[in-house]
Amino acid sequence: MAAVEMLGNYPDLEIIACAVSAQVFAKVVAGEVDGAVLPIENSLHGSVAEHYDLLLEMPVQVERESLLRIRHNLIAMPGVKVEEVRKVMSHPVALSQCRRFLAAHPDLEVVPFYDTAGSVKHLMEVGLRDVAGIAPELAAREYGAEVLVAGVEDHAENYTRFHLVRREGADVDESHSADVNKMSLAFAIEHRPGTLVAALQRLAKAGVDLTKIESRPVPGSPWEYVFYVDGRFDSAAKAEEALAALSEHCRMVKVLGRYRAA
Predict the structure, then answer these.
(1) Which residue blocks in 19-91 are alpha helix, DSSP H?
(2) Which of 12, 94, 207, 240 is the most exposed place for a label (fewest CB within 10 A)?
(3) Are the beta carbons of 235 and 196 closer than 8 angstroms?
């Protein structure tokens, strides 16, 4: 859904599904696909930590971002009634976002599944008439199922932020290169008192509005961290000033991408 919303103006768009995120990044880097649309943060569940790690590790760049309103629906085979459902399947994150609905139906067996839409695909392929999936409405249309109960999520204000990730050096889509006002960075600081504060102060002094900060452990270096930040700016000069200032206080700085804020 996010890929279609972000890239739907490309008439020859072909979406390739992958099993795990590392495979997605590998295909991007190898040039097997032109790019990837990946979730980076959900307004309820928080950040997708693995994707931060892969953005730092792999030679890729964030080219665009989008916001998608997440709606969860109870979906089953055509003709099945709610009272016939004995089991509910979905991705663990989706299940955690529908706790009130599930708590109100304690007789339902809750089963984690690899994917939201995949749960609907599975129950339709196997012909499970006592099983429902929790998934977007698009999954019901795609696989010929029916929505039994719409909007079973706990919170209406449920959004996921997605990144369009391309290989480093890939040609930038000029239609989205204008009005660039946001950048994502990764940096590591020296182990000295006040270095993180100093680094953040430099960003503020350069006129960058910090919109997010996230820390991730450095593999193989216990209790050392890489910090990921998103910042808004109103001119390219301010962005360059912030990068130069940050480099003075950090042993590593990587620009993960510059793009227009969603």
Answers:
(1) 21-30, 49-57
(2) 12
(3) no
pLDDT of the residue at 175: 63
Instruction: Tell me the three state secondary structure of residue 52.
Output: helix
Domain borders along the chain are 1-69+158-175, 73-149, 179-262
The CATH homologous superfamily for domain 73-149 is Periplasmic binding protein-like II (3.40.190.10)
Per-residue pLDDT reduced to its tens digit, 73-95: 999 999 999 999 999 999 999 99
| Bridge partners for 227 per DSSP | 187, 215
Length of the chain: 262
What are the catalytic residues? 160, 162
> What residue type is 109 in one-letter code?
E
Tokens of 116: 């939201």
CA 75 to chain centroid, in Å, comes to: 23
CA distances 36 to 138, 141, 166, 173, 247, Å, are: 20, 24, 7, 14, 29
Q: Cα-atom radius of gyration of the chain, to the nearest Å? A: 21
Rounded Cα distance between 1 and 112, Å, is: 21
pLDDT > 80? residue 172: no
For residue 15 the two structure tokens come to: 């979406």
Tens of pLDDT, residues 214-259: 999 988 888 889 999 999 999 999 999 999 988 888 889 999 999 9
CA distance 85 to 243: 55
CA angle 5-92-115, nearest 5°? Answer: 45
In this model, does residue 177 exceed pLDDT 90?
A: no
Instruction: Report residue 98 as tokens.
Output: 């529908």
Helix (H, G, I), strand (E, B) or coil at 197: helix
